[in-house]
């Protein structure tokens, strides 16, 4: 998107689309901005009429200049202004719904005309803003779409052709975003398409042809998987049938080429859909597969074939009863599966027997007193050094063991003097 100066903005039409045509009577309902009728909806053309200036003048009569100016904000640098414009337009739609509910009886024609004009203006905006590559702008655009197609907003025009006809101007963008690499954009786009399919004023028949269109980039795994997931959800909810726009031949024509895609995820999703639709009419489905994509049929039959009995022989169950987990070779359970020391089982049984007999284990050994501590206590009391000298005399005479025994018993002073005098 670019700025107002070159007039190519959010309402610029796609290069692949041409402006629709309409009768002369529709120009009055859309305002006097155009000399020539341009169709049921005002969609800005890339070249020719209607121009960006014509579209802006048309929208200003419906939603005011402020919203139009914000929607025309420049590119990705000012996307917050586009968000503000979308939020303002959404609030305007909600306000019109509230005013319509409070409108006195007998004024329904006025409400219908105003609602139809606002609906057309919103479609003009949605046809371009849903192409915005900035996800924070794309998500508010989906919120506007949800409001425009709500039951309250569509009530005055639900029985007319406008809601269904408008889908052609933005459905292709929703389908394309359903294959986006952005998870939020992909999920919200798929959800919006499902809501349109559930809407009574639109129906699944108006959405399915867009979903079954060929992928613009068949090599993109995101695009293929996203589209296949969307198709699977629609098939699961609405089923096959011409009324839903889901003929078996059209579905297979879209899905079968993707069964041979490079992406494993795309192949699995495509094969899953083929197997689902095949279950509805096997003979007709296989005949169509043979005619449309014969190379896929052997792969499908291989998936549907029962498993080989020989390959499962090694998985057969014997009649031998296995010992319980943690059991030893004798069948008795051990205390631990791995790393149990030898003799543990015997010791455990001995402890159990002793407990049953009321016996107690042997008394624990008394801790030996630290000799060094005892000696230090004696020496600390030896103020004159006599005890230390006596100990040295005893050691020097080879009576170290006797001395140790004496000190172990903590001898008195009298006993120590007797020991000293006995030394010759």
UniProtKB/TrEMBL annotation:
InterPro entries: ARM-like, ARM-type_fold, CEP104-like. Gene3D superfamilies: Leucine-rich Repeat Variant (1.25.10.10). Pfam families: CEP104-like_TOG (PF21040). Coiled coil: none annotated. Transmembrane segments: none annotated. Residues 1-27 are annotated as: Disordered. GO terms for cellular component: cilium. This is TOG domain-containing protein. It comes from Chrysochromulina tobinii.
